[in-house]
Every structure is written in C-alpha cells, then in structure tokens.
Amino acid sequence: MQVEIRIERFADQGRCVGHVDGRVVFVRFALPGELLRVTIDEPHERDDRFWTAEVDEVLEASPDRVAYAWPLAGPLSQGGGLGGADLCHVSLDGQLRWKADIIQEQMRRLGHQDIEVPITRPEGDAALGGLHWRTRIEMIADEEGRPSMRRRGTHQRVQLRDMPLATKSLLTVAEQQGFWDTAYTPGTHIRLSVPEPRGAKGPGDNFGLLSNDGLQAGTQKLQEKVEINGRSFNYRVDASGFWQVHRDAPQALAGEVVNLLRARLGDARRACIWDLYSGSGLFTLPLATMISERCTMLSVEGSKTAVRNARHNLRSMDVNHVDARCGDVAATIAHLPSNLDSPDAIVLDPPRAGARGKVCRQIAQSKASTVVYVACDPTSLARDVGVLCDLGYSLDSVQAFDIYPMTHHVETVALLSR
pLDDT tens for residues 371-384? Predict the structure, then answer.
C-alpha cells in the first residue's frame, strides 16, 4: 500500500515518525518536515498500533537530505536494501543533530534527566564524507560463494566487490588477499579485521581473515596501537573478538575516560578503580598507569580470550597492580577482597543491553564517588542512568561520539557523581 505522509520527528533505529489516518508510521530513509510517498510494509492490514514503511519518492525534501552516500544501502525501491548505513541519506551535520536529539529524548523519557548532549565526530571523518571508518567487516558467502550481504526483507544475497564503510587499509588488504574473488562454501561467515596502521607504512601482516571463525590468512592475534595524551599503548586483541570498530574510536573513548577520571582523582595519591566489561583492556591500561601514583584496580570481562589478551597487555607494560578477572560482572563484584571492595571510581562499558538493575544496585552499594558509563545504546544508557540516579547518583555530563557515521548508532560517555 502506497500513501503520502508528512514526517514529524526522529524516532529510534534510524527511522522517523509520521501519521496516516491516526496511525503511527515509522518510516525508513525519512527526515523531519518532509512530505513523502512511502510504501507500507506488508502485512499492512494487521491491527498493530503502528505501521512501518520505506520511502519511495521525496515530494518535499529536508535541507539535511543528500544523495545516498552508498546507494546499495538506500531504499529497496531504488535498488538498495543492504544494512549498515541507514542514515546514508542525511548530511553529516544532520546526522549529528539526529543522534543528539535521540540521546536527549531518551535521557528525558527513560532517565528523567534533562541534559544537553554535545556530540563530536573523529578527525578526518568529514573529509572522507563519513565513509572509510570500519576496521572490521563481516559478510556471508552467497550461492556462488562470494562475499555478500542480504537485501532487507528478502532472502536475496547481493554480491559485493567493495565496502565504502571500510577503511582504506582494510580495502587494500582485501584486494591483496583476493577477498572479493575468493569462492567460499555458500553460507560461510566471513570476517576481515585490519587494525589501523598508526605511523606504519601499511598493515603488513597485521590483519586477520577468518571464515566460520577459522583463520584463512594473516594472524589471529592482532596488534592495536592507541595514543592517549601523548602516550602510546599497545594491545593484543583477537581477530574474531570485540574491539571498537571505528579506526579512531579507541583513542577518542579512552582519552575521554582518562581525562574525566584524572579531573576527579588526579590529586589522589591512592585510588581503587573498577573497570567492568573490560574486554582486552582498552581502558584498563591507561587507567592503571595514568590516574594516581598508587592505583589498585579490578577488571572484569566475560570472554576468556579477551581476558587472556588483557593479562598479556598488562604484563607487556609491567603492570602488576590490576586484578584481571574472567567471569560474570554481577557475580564477580559480589565477592571481592577488602582491598578491592570499596572503589573510588567505576568505569563500565557494557554490551548493547546495558548493565541492568542488578549491576547498577551493586555499583550504588559500592559507594564509589564517581561512575563513568560508556554506552553504545542511548536507550540502555538512559534506563541505567535513571536507576543510578534513583540510588543516589547525579548525572553531571553526557558526551556523545559519532563513531558510527552513516548509521543511527552512537557512542556516549556519561559521568555520574555520588
């Protein structure tokens, strides 16, 4: 069913909201203020409270509308339908406004906090047009065994010979390894991870090409370099594991976390810090070495591989005052020795679902004076901030980072005080 609709405001998941005959419609590839001709997704005769739809034709355009930066990720009606770039129709400045608006709305609605949220983009993203930022890509082999992505709402696999969101270093490795021409078993999961070569001439053999989690070329143990306030940190990370995907996200986020805690704890000769959901130690290493003269630290992560890498990274810097534990966060912090059970500050970077109520209550029970919450989902952040504020904390600031350009995703760092 095709209808005309006036778009009213931003919504979640990269969509905007309008109304048709009193019914809410969430529209993909829309912008507030626009008049659009859209196709309602099937089945449209259901009695749900809302419909979903996609743009067919723009009748009155927003000033923030631009040509689709990656047409294959645009509307189905225009030959698109691939995922990964649901804001590819929005100007870069418009994307910042969109994300700031969503964060502020979620903080008001779920966190009951009315706060301005500044948002920045990594240096170089504007010059690259919001493209070439991903250091990891994942695809599925199509019926012919070639790297592909699925077209939304269908079982159709679209074979690719390029990935505009990937860094130029990754694309160089892909070309060298014949990534686009290799024939895999149909249905094979393919992953290519290429750390950004900071100061090096190129990635060399510091990359990992995997299929169904088996190494095909390169190395399983990648080397990532992060510079924070003029100091370099080297990390060993797993080619199939988690690491911030934007080429500059590790530096931006770790720098923000360190600066926030140095401002709060920098004059303290002693400090106890928890780093929860700590991964391979992105925050652990600088927190252990840049905050106070005598620092006691606990890091907790659920992935055994990530914890092995974190311990290796700590040993390589001769850091021996971090108790790096593998396990469930809630279960681990429920039973700690006396030298770790009273943190001065807590840093947490939970998965997209957030920390949730139990961990938030444990944070409050610890009586930590400062909490730095790193979040990739504004909804989860707002919900958990609301819980923490009910438990005696106040929200001091939220800084957003546009480390997922062309998508509705956004990273935030919130600072709370007891």
Answer: 999 999 999 999 99
Q: Which residues pair with 9 in a beta bridge?
A: 17
Task: Examine the residue annotation and report whether 295 is marked as an active-site residue of this protein.
Answer: no
Longest distance between any two alpha carbons in the chain, whole Å: 67
CA distance 286 to 411: 20
**Measured distance CA(394)–CA(409) in Å, rounded:** 25
Dist. CA 396–CA 97, nearest whole Å: 21
Q: pLDDT tens across 26-69, in order? A: 999 999 999 999 999 877 666 667 899 999 999 999 999 999 99
The residue with tokens 């988690």 is 242
**Nearest-angstrom CA–CA distance, 249 and 239:** 17
Between the CA of residue 226 and those of 173, 198, 199, 249, 260, what are the distances in Å? 21, 8, 11, 10, 18
Please give the full DSSP string across 239-307, using - where no structure is assigned.
Answer: TTS----BTTHHHHHHHHHHHHHHHHHTT-SEEEEEEES-TTTTTHHHHHHHS-SEEEEEEEES-HHHH
Give, in order, the Cα–Cα distances in Å from 353 to each of 349, 357, 364, 367, 382.
11, 11, 19, 24, 11
- pTM recorded for the entire structure: 0.95
State the angle between helix axes of 92-109 and 378-390 in degrees (0 to 180), rounded to the nearest 10. Answer: 30
Report the pLDDT averaged over residues 76-94. 96
Cα–Cα nearest to 190, from 146, 236, 242: 146
Catalytic residue among 16, 88, 272, 376: 376
User: Nearest to residue 82, comparing CAs of 154, 184, 9?
Assistant: 154
